[in-house]
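Hey, sorry to bother you again with one of my protein questions. A protein chain has come my way and I'm curious about its shape. It would help a lot if you went through both lines with me. I owe you a coffee for this, so here goes:
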Amino acid sequence: MSTGMIVLIVIVAVVVVGAAAALILRGRDRRGGPALKRRFGPEYERAVALHDGDAKAAERELTERVERHGDLRERPLDPAGRAHYTARWTAVQEHFVDAPRQAVAEADRLLAELAVARGYPDGGRYEEQLAALSVHHADHVDGYRQVHRVARTGASDAVTESGAGTEEMRTALVGARALFDDLTHPARETGRHRATPAGSRPHAPWALDRSRPKES
């Protein structure tokens, strides 16, 4: 076989491989958006908004999260551990009546500790812990984000006679409760979208009663 023929074969092979790679990448691009939307739900929309509407940039960020944390396997909680965290959350809700800011700060710490117990990055690396949680609990991770923000900076609205600041803290705590439930109840971890069992009540009904919070 002549040298010219060998060169031609190599060139053809390179072109074929390049074309195949381009097709694969285009296929991934077509699937990436819908797949990431399904996986991340509201977290996808938040990422797009943070990137000023640039969906591609948002998808790159979310894809990086999946690459870093997608293989994480949550450690189970034993019954004693679940009872311990549940009792602490009940105390947080009761404490909220008299000291809402302190209760929100305790909820923030509690979620960080619980996430570590389930195998997530240490709470001292909040952003990394949040990113990992967003991969596996995308529907409810924003509740943790909100309660952490309020715990660190306080409610954005000054507390007035109308209780505006307290309401913001209450809303943050209610959102955080959803993630707490996800992390403490393995039976609910069968998928990102979870149905409420027939005859059960939605979590955190205490939020509707402004004078006496109660455990669901």
